[in-house]
Amino acid sequence: MSLTTGLLLCLAVCVRTALGHGGNSSFANPILPGFHPDPSCIFVPEWDDTFFCASSSFNAFPGIPIHASKDLQNWKLTGHVLNRREQLPRLAETNRSTSGIWAPTLRFNNNTFWLVTTLVDDDRPQADFSRWDNIIFKGKDPYNQASWSNAIHFSFTGYDTEPFWDVDGKAYITGAHAWQVGPYIQQAEANLDTGELGEWQIIWNGTGGMAPEGPHIYHKDGWYYILAAEGGTGLDHMVTMARSKNLTGPYVSNPSNPVLTNANTTNLFQTVGHADLFQDKSGSWWGVALSTRSGPNYINYPMGRETVMTAVSWPKGEWPTFSPINGESNGWAMPHAAKDIRGIGPFITEGDDVAFTANTTLPAHFTHWRYPHPSSFTISPPEKPNTLRLTPSFLNLTALNGNYAGPQHGPDGQTFVGRRQQDTLFTFSVDLSFAPIALDEEAGVTAFLTQNHHLDLGIVLLPASASTATFPGTNATAEGADAPAALIPQVRFRGASYVPVPAPVIAPLPRAWRAGPLTLEIKAANGTHYSFSVGPAGRRSEMRTVLVASNDAVSWGFTGTILGVYATTNGGKGSAPGYFSKWRYTPQGQFRN
Ligand SMILES: *[C@@H]1O[C@H](CO)[C@@H](O)[C@H](O)[C@H]1NC(C)=O
Ligand SMILES: *[C@@H]1O[C@H](CO)[C@@H](O)[C@H](O)[C@H]1NC(C)=O
Ligand SMILES: *[C@@H]1O[C@H](CO)[C@@H](O)[C@H](O)[C@H]1NC(C)=O
Ligand SMILES: *[C@@H]1O[C@H](CO)[C@@H](O)[C@H](O)[C@H]1NC(C)=O
Ligand SMILES: *[C@@H]1O[C@H](CO)[C@@H](O)[C@H](O)[C@H]1NC(C)=O
Ligand SMILES: *[C@@H]1O[C@H](CO)[C@@H](O)[C@H](O)[C@H]1NC(C)=O
Ligand SMILES: *[C@@H]1O[C@H](CO)[C@@H](O)[C@H](O)[C@H]1NC(C)=O
Ligand SMILES: *[C@@H]1O[C@H](CO)[C@@H](O)[C@H](O)[C@H]1NC(C)=O
Ligand SMILES: *[C@@H]1O[C@H](CO)[C@@H](O)[C@H](O)[C@H]1NC(C)=O
Ligand SMILES: *[C@@H]1O[C@H](CO)[C@@H](O)[C@H](O)[C@H]1NC(C)=O
After folding, report:
1. What is the pLDDT of residues 169-196, one digit of tens each?
2. Residues 575, 438: contact at Cβ < 8 Å?
3. Last residue of a domain, one of 331, 360, 391
4. Among 177, 281, 475, 572, which residue's CB has the most CB atoms within a 10 Å radius?
5. What predicted TM-score, i.e. pTM, was given to this entire model?
6. Which one is catalytic: 71, 160, 213, 440?
7. What is the residue range of 254's domain?
8. How far does residue 342's CA lie from ligand 6's centre (Å)?
């Protein structure tokens, strides 16, 4: 080490120490566990030195969650960009589970928060790209979700769009061109207030990996950098970069591409890609990306694509270097721990203990699938205070053929509400009072990934002859037989997935429990399986596990598992509500390596 570099190093270290940061920090990934893919993060000095991150929400509503932190460690949900149906009515009609909101980019410019994204109708292989709706939301106050505008639409045959402002103040949109036509990355000058665009230009084709997408532009030291994702969002996912002296190109690829990937490693954290970069107050660079905790086997990853973070070293005029993604990480000194964040949601590591008391609302992190019918969700109704009353929907969680298939099949969408699975190990339980009287009426709990992937434990009114099993631990002789045609409440486990799921289990509810209430529970005691249990409310020792099922059924695609409750008539004529109470989600462990 020369004297000069030694001095420079000391300067860097000494400045940091002087700022009170001390040495490097260690931190844990994921920073936003559970279904929080395609992260886009910014640091906003104008808002009290706060970091804000947006993530993709697909068909979930409210959509596009924003999490905030002052220390990069304690992240709190401040609200959702997409929080009112009028902002984007067509989310109600998307078919396919992979449709909905893809890859938002969050930026702050001219005292305004900008969120550019795409409402996708992912009807592959015959996708009609003319229906892919590229949109801009703008908002003035990240703590007041009502401040987000309705969608401003612009025309682009592609997705993963983002705003960028050049030094002359002109605004641009960069996006990934649809794969059937491209693939390449395009850019056009844009009026972000109106959605009017200049002409689209191809600015980079990536390095040859599948689907160059998720482009972000940064201007630094006289260079324009494009950061992109390539390889698809599976095991080959990677982050690549190119740069040019001119915003419009030509862009030259980084000879060290990919700059970040966990492909071909044995790391628990796989599919690392779709990154974004930001700088903290002391000038240190950080990268965020999505990753699945699947290991290279890529079989059990029910939490889907989560947000991870890493330190980035980006010397003047040079390419940035990303530290690899790991569960236990080390990087630049972080801002001092601080939890004074406003916002309507919990910190990301918190569990739930929700009593549905009068005059409360559903917690901000609770999620529906597409727009809910508000009257199907009533907190503390007069006939049963301190419960959440669910009015059943015509559609069940599978809906018709796994597609939502439009409002003609029932105006009330799906009666479902849940919260993300955010911990490898957890227990989720609720109490249920339910008095079904019509055939096929059902209420229960679910580990729900998409309408094509879910594992449900419900109470359903079925003929006694429909039973496939006796209830675990009961004595059928002592119970006495129900007449085969009698409609009785049965416990039903039912799953849907693209991989084989256990056959349905239908077992008569023990007579002594039929008057309810019951406790229903989903528990992950390890990283590969869930147990589904039921028992009389308040008598834990009598709980019985109906089935243990692999979580591979809900390890697929773009979203992550949501644990929740539902009520449905399964297309029948019923109307009996389910009353849910004592909602508990208890985090019990996080696998990080
Ligand atoms: C910044 O915002 C103000 C009002 O919100 C607007 O009048 C002005 O034109 C904007 N400036 C630019 C450069 O867009
Ligand atoms: C990208 O590929 C297209 C054809 O797919 C080609 O026309 C274009 O010149 C390429 N652009 C760059 C910047 O390499
Ligand atoms: C940058 O691109 C513009 C538009 O294509 C062109 O007019 C200009 O000459 C380019 N500048 C440089 C430095 O390449
Ligand atoms: C992973 O390994 C395969 C086979 O050697 C190779 O083709 C691929 O480029 C590698 N992927 C990355 C991102 O390094
Ligand atoms: C501190 O973290 C940065 C970013 O990861 C790294 O480049 C540097 O080597 C680390 N320093 C020490 C002393 O570990
Ligand atoms: C709920 O709000 C109503 C109207 O403001 C009020 O009359 C009632 O007492 C409140 N109930 C509870 C339990 O706080
Ligand atoms: C209910 O679920 C079943 C099985 O998943 C499905 O075949 C059926 O179409 C669904 N019915 C309704 C009305 O959603
Ligand atoms: C969804 O699919 C149904 C049935 O195929 C179709 O009638 C409907 O138009 C589709 N909706 C959209 C928005 O594509
Ligand atoms: C089941 O109940 C019947 C009737 O009460 C009794 O005769 C029988 O021994 C019980 N069987 C078991 C395995 O407990
Ligand atoms: C998780 O638990 C289930 C049920 O007890 C068991 O079958 C499975 O092998 C366990 N998985 C691991 C990785 O231990």
Report:
1. 999 999 998 766 678 999 999 999 999 9
2. yes
3. 331
4. 177
5. 0.94
6. 213
7. 3-331
8. 25
